[in-house]
Structure formats: C-alpha cells, structure tokens
What we know:
Layout: H1 2-24, H2 28-33, E1 51-59, E2 62-71, E3 78-83, E4 89-97, E5 100-107, E6 110-119, E7 122-129, E8 132-140
Antiparallel strand pairs: 1-2, 1-8, 2-3, 3-4, 4-5, 5-6, 6-7, 7-8
Amino acid sequence: MKTLKLMPLALLFAACASSNTATTQPPAQAATAAVQPASTRPSTAALDPVGSYEFATIVDGQTVNGTMHIEGGPGAYKGRIVTSVFPEIPIVGATVEANVINVKASMPDGELAIRMVMDGMNFKGNWALGSDSGEFNGKKLPK
C-alpha cells in the first residue's frame, strides 16, 4: 500500500527531472544547424590590399587597360595607377571592408573613387569621377 502512495510522488519527480533537462540542454538539431561547413563560413583573414592589379574599364567609349599598385599599411595606403591613356594617377588612400577594397586617387579634375569587390584574386567593381562612372574589373597579380 505504501508503494502505491509513493508512486504519484515518484512520477512527479521524474517529470520535473525530465523537464529540467529539456530546458537546460539545447536540442541536438539546433546545435548542428548552427555549424556551417568551412566552405560557406566567412573568411576571418583580413584582406591585404597591398600589391599590383591589372584592370580594364571603358572611359568615354574607349577601352582603358592599366595597372594599379598599392603599397603602405592600414591608414596609410598609397600608390599609383598607370593606364594606356592617362598620365600616372596618384593613389592617396585605400580602405578594406570584408572583401571590398575602396581606393581614392587624385585627378586634376577631382577625386577618383574605385570600388573593387574581391573574389579570390579577381575583382569586379566600379569607378566614379564627378558625374562620370563605369565598371571596373581585373585581377590581383601574384607577388
């Protein structure tokens, strides 16, 4: 008879114990969903803009090929842009945000802004100078 009276109490303790573990331990499915395969994880390595780049763009209907050389370090990047059409263009700064390199260069008629979205060694992007703009693409050259 004593066993029958203790049975509801034992069931209550068992129910409380199982509900405590359910709230303190995350479901196995949620834990595995948070893990991303290595190929889809964002890169934690900082992008280094220093180096030389080959590029092509169209300016006023004419194809312009050239190279861009970036040197220096964070907060003090500089360099030059050499093209098949224009005189050498000095780079006065660059910044890096994730996989994007933003370059500022000094032209006689204003600031040239270049945006390069890197995909490995290749990039696509654009440039803007005043009201003119265009697409800009190419690749980073091996060191």
